[in-house]
Design a protein that fits this description.
Helix content is about 70%, strand content about 0%. It has four helices and no strands.
Amino acid sequence: MSAIKSHKELIVYQLAFKVSMEIFVLAKSFPKDEIYALTSQIRRCSRSVCANLAEAFRKRRYEKAFISKLSDSEGEAAESQVWLDYSFECGYLSEDVSRRLFIEYEKIIGMLVNMMNHPDKWSFEK
């Protein structure tokens, strides 16, 4: 198996990107009066999971910076879950869709925590 050379090769990045794109499409159906609140927030934080992952990958030679960016990504994933809850409770998402996306974020969070718990697996060899 060859070394991962780009954040885009990370399974966690691929899953987070897929979920954020699904949220983008779903949020198009949210009411216009939510555009600066719920719609903007859920899109922003779901995208931020990926952005922070990309930054973490590029900072992996500095363990503390790597873990910090992964932690930011984890926080954004958890925030996305909160906005999914609001989207369901406000009637903008079905229970099935909301639950499925929430579970996808649980997987993402689990992968991020695993990376944070084992930063040595991602650092450059010395």
